[in-house]
Amino acid sequence: MHIDAISKLGIEIEEVCQNIFDNELADIVPKYSCGSFIKADDFPNKNHFSANNEDNKDCPHSNKSTVEIAFIRAQLKTLKNSSITLKFPSVGATENLLLASTFSNVVIHIKNAAREPEIVALQNFLNGIGAKITGAGTSHIIIHPCNIKGTDTDVMLKKNIYQFSIPSDRIECGTYILAGAICGGVLTFKSEAFENQYALLSILKNSIELEDLTNKKKIYFLQNKSISNVFVTTPYPGIATDLQSPLSAFFCTVDGKNHIVESIFQNRVAHLDELIKMGAKISRYKNYFTIEGQTQLHGAKVTSNDLRGGAALILAGLGAIGTTEVIDNSYITRGYTNIDLHLSQLGADIHKKQIDI
């Protein structure tokens, strides 16, 4: 959360703990003047949280098991000039700092900022509604003072003076590229959707041929797939941690032994056990794992434990013999709109199935 960085802006931070029920958030949120909710497992100091049903004795569903939720209450008095250096170039931290200081009357520097294309898009949007921000796409972002106020921005947006197009999802695009790499064939992408795929394409360079068309990119996926290397997930422009899971599924299908080091989210490994159920040869030590490719995967009943891991299981199912059933698609649909329909249009035999519990 980089609470220390936010505090440097002059925002007073108070850590607050409440034990509440996961499916009762809508009823409980209005009771508190709080900011965003954070699961206790993701909180820097989760040990100071304790579950206690007695705290919820007035809740009509107090017989349900509780989940630990923490939230932060922030109060802004006056933003102050600040130079903030992030310990890690986090996308979320960079975005939050931009939003917190956009309409300030002081100069704020964010150093070691995330450089992802999403940061550039956010800067373009904020500048479009009156902010003065420079440097997005580099590690040093500067927020300059501006005269426009929030109410002025509201008026401008209501009059549709400024319209903004959300960029294509580069991770979703990368996932479909890997689907083609596993199954073979030819895919055509709009050029703007194909941008920022340099790290992924460098991995696939021996397995693809590219053709430039007018405003489009056509990819021919080759059958002589052979890759052996060591890959480390890093902040942009490196190999995205969000493509690590789909890449793992792809590596199961290629000739060679590939080593992956997950350096961003070290617990992003739940998909590996599910791939092993399908016949993958994977060995792991903490956040370092090795995938021996050219293994014929077989359909199995597997569980989606997170967004990108679920997408990886779908990709593995496309390249497996037999039927693969991916349980719990709620994670997947959160990040991939109509992935089943899109893959069906490309020739995949895939459909959603409602399971009665």
Describe this structure in words.
The protein has 357 residues and is of the alpha+beta class. Helix content is 30%, strand content 23%. The protein is built from 13 helices and 16 strands. The protein has helices spanning 3-8, 25-28, 91-101, 117-128, 150-158, 170-183, 191-194, 198-204, 244-251, 270-277, 307-318, 330-335, 339-345, and strands at residues 11-20, 37-39, 67-76, 82-85, 108-111, 132-134, 140-144, 185-190, 208-213, 216-221, 230-232, 257-261, 281-285, 288-292, 301-303, 325-327. The strands form 5 sheets. A 4-stranded mixed β-sheet has the order 4-5-7-6. The longest helix is centred in the middle third of the chain and has 14 residues, at 170-183. It is elongated. The two termini are 36 Å apart. Residues 16-68 have low confidence and may be disordered.
Essential attributes:
357 residues; alpha+beta; 4-stranded mixed sheet; 13 helices; 16 strands; 30% helix
Topology:
Blueprint: H1 3-8, E1 11-20, H2 25-28, E2 37-39, E3 67-76, E4 82-85, H3 91-101, E5 108-111, H4 117-128, E6 132-134, E7 140-144, H5 150-158, H6 170-183, E8 185-190, H7 191-194, H8 198-204, E9 208-213, E10 216-221, E11 230-232, H9 244-251, E12 257-261, H10 270-277, E13 281-285, E14 288-292, E15 301-303, H11 307-318, E16 325-327, H12 330-335, H13 339-345
Parallel strand pairs: 4-5, 11-12, 15-16
Antiparallel strand pairs: 1-3, 2-3, 5-7, 6-7, 8-10, 9-10, 12-14, 13-14
